[in-house]
Amino acid sequence: MITSLQSIDAQFGIKKGVPITTNTPNNGDELGEEDINQEEGFLSEQDAADMSAIIEEAKKDVETMAMITKLKAENTEGLEELKKLSPPEILGGMKETLANLKLIEYLFKDPQRAVKEMEKEGMIEKAHLKKYRKDPSLLEQDTRRGLYFQFISLAVVGGFIE
Asked: Cα separation of 162 and 158, whole Å?
């Protein structure tokens, strides 16, 4: 069980204050980036606590555990590709995904604007655009699910969830 930055440090042999990303792009853009990127490239105690909380809740969630079992059974090729990432890259990906999950709170304060901004950035497939314009809450749900799946996949590859 990961309960602190020290636990993550011990598992991956990373010292506090050492950059955890090498070339992961910043997706903060203008939306709240000053909050999210305060310690860009570093895993803070808060990052570790937030990651740990998500992981612990995921372990208790029957649906998430079923998703992990299915992922391991049906997507071994994708997992093998992720396993090529170094421990700092895995943690960097988890941190970036966590930051994006937090960013959703800000982005979807104005759901219609969120749809427009995500469309402008090419983040919405044309086939789904009409549906999301009609009901922006679906875009928020789908975005949250996608980011959660990404975080959990990285946590599995990183050995945080068995």
From this structure: 10
For residue 148, the surrounding DSSP H or E stretch is: helix 136-157
CB 96 within 8 A of CB 47: no
The mean per-residue pLDDT over the stretch 5-17 comes to 40
For residue 116, give its domain range.
43-157
Q: Domain count of the chain?
A: 1
Q: What is the pTM assigned to this prediction? A: 0.70
Evaluate whether residue 133 is within a structural domain. yes
pLDDT of 41 reads: 53
Q: How far apart are CA 111 and CA 107, in angstroms?
A: 7
How far, in Å, CA of 94 to CA of 99, rounded? 9
Contact yes or no for 27/98 (Cβ under 8 A): no
